[in-house]
User: Fold ACOT9 thioesterase from Thryothorus ludovicianus.
Amino acid sequence: VRNKLRDIVGASTNWRDHVQAMQERKALHTLLAKRQEDLPPRRMKDSYLEVILPLGSQPEIREKYLNVHNSVRFGRILEDLDSLGVLICYTHTKQEMQQRSPLSIVTALVDKINLCQKIIYPDCDIKFTGNVSWVGKTSMEVKMHMLQLHDGDYSPVLDATFVMVARDPENKRPAFVNPLIPESPEEEEIFKHGELNKLKRIEFNTASLLKMAPTAEERNIVHDIFLNTLDTRQEGERTVSFHSRKLPPNSVWMEDAKLKGLQICHPEERNIFNRIFGGFLMRKAFELGWATACSYGGSRPFIVSVDDIMFQKPVEVGSLLLLSGQVCYTEKNYIQIRVHSEVYNANTREHHTTNIFHFTFISENEVPQVVPKTYGESMLYLDGKRHFTAIMKEI
Assistant:
């Protein structure tokens, strides 16, 4: 898959040649469509791809995918889904006469990944399938499925929905993509669902706690948590201080439920456009999220869902990538983790957010309640609860 992508883009495999390879891409500007109407429509089956990851039949590739629990590293699967999603979009936009694509297709958003298997086996073949399911003017929604071979049959492991955007050859401005024509009532339904997903994202973003106050119900939740942490050991209710706080039984302060990590972004981790590969960022964020859930719950956590990963800013090769994992909501065995990713520029001493990741884990045992102390932490708690509630409705 990755070799095909390099051929489509004309990317260099040597870091020292990458500047020249990018210069050569500039000439492809003339191949861009001036209007979407100038591009031939495509069908869903035109972009359909099946890819086998031969973990069972080729044991030599197993090592890269293996974790210490003798199952598959989910971070590696995130990398593969990201690459496959891009290739599916290039398949949708392929022009017969052009060997190289003038488009730079990049991941804008991981809408959701829902798992229906706790364990992915390291010695059974995996099959990925996927196609473009919805198209806007310059963006495409891709639906992918992962199945694993057991007793001669492929059984479902996960479903993923990614949103990709097309940009010009230099990855600077949006570029038009081929329209999509549904061919059956089922495809009409899938396409309509893609449109609804877009509207849902806008709605979720509009109601963000960074823009709007919490609902009345959410304010009550925060107030109840606050009352539950007041130290009432002092004489009489009137003398209870707003500052005197105590941790309720079987609970952990939110400020004590975080882990941090740092990555130096080497050329090895670059994508075909010589920025840091989105799949690599997802893998690193997932691994920090897993470690945060593991240290918090005290037992092995399993990933249930990934949702709403927004790629806000590309990460340049050579950046210092700071990752911060936070437990922001808990319920019974479930742990909702938020990983904040930012780049630090040592020359300007500036920090810029690149991604926010949301992961839902289930622990083997019931976990302590996470308790916010400040208003800011309460907003993180409510945001985590919103993500958790949306995921539980889905699965």
